[in-house]
Amino acid sequence: MILANFLVGLLVMLVCLAIQAFVAFWCVRYFVRKTRRLKAEDHLQASIRPLLVAMAAMMLGTFVQVGLWGVLFVVLGEFSELYEAVYHSAVNFASLGYGDIVMSKNRKLLGPLEAINGVLMLGMSAAALMVILQQLVKMQYRDGSQAADDEGSQ
Description:
It contains four helices and no strands. With 154 residues, it is an all-alpha fold.
């Protein structure tokens, strides 16, 4: 049963990785595309909306992954209600570990596997947001240095 849990967990983790990679790449590309032609004085204000859209997309991707794990728990017969399964999944994915709901002995190993998956996927979201913030800083620096060069040449 341990090997079966690892294989099921690994399969779901790979699907989650594919979802997270797709969402993270989309978010970074979306932000760059929406902010590419902004002027220096517009960067901060105009970048807030694309940043919020990117963050919301990453949260949606996380909710999809939590839901995927929850559906798996229902399919495996661990929960009869989707709501309870998704709640348990969210607690695992976020590594909260309340322990108020526990799966059966045969499937208990899936909880820590989901927690490991959640830590990795939330780390990818944080990394994607960091890339977006670095892009914003780079744009500010580039436009600020160009403005300084323009002032110096006058």
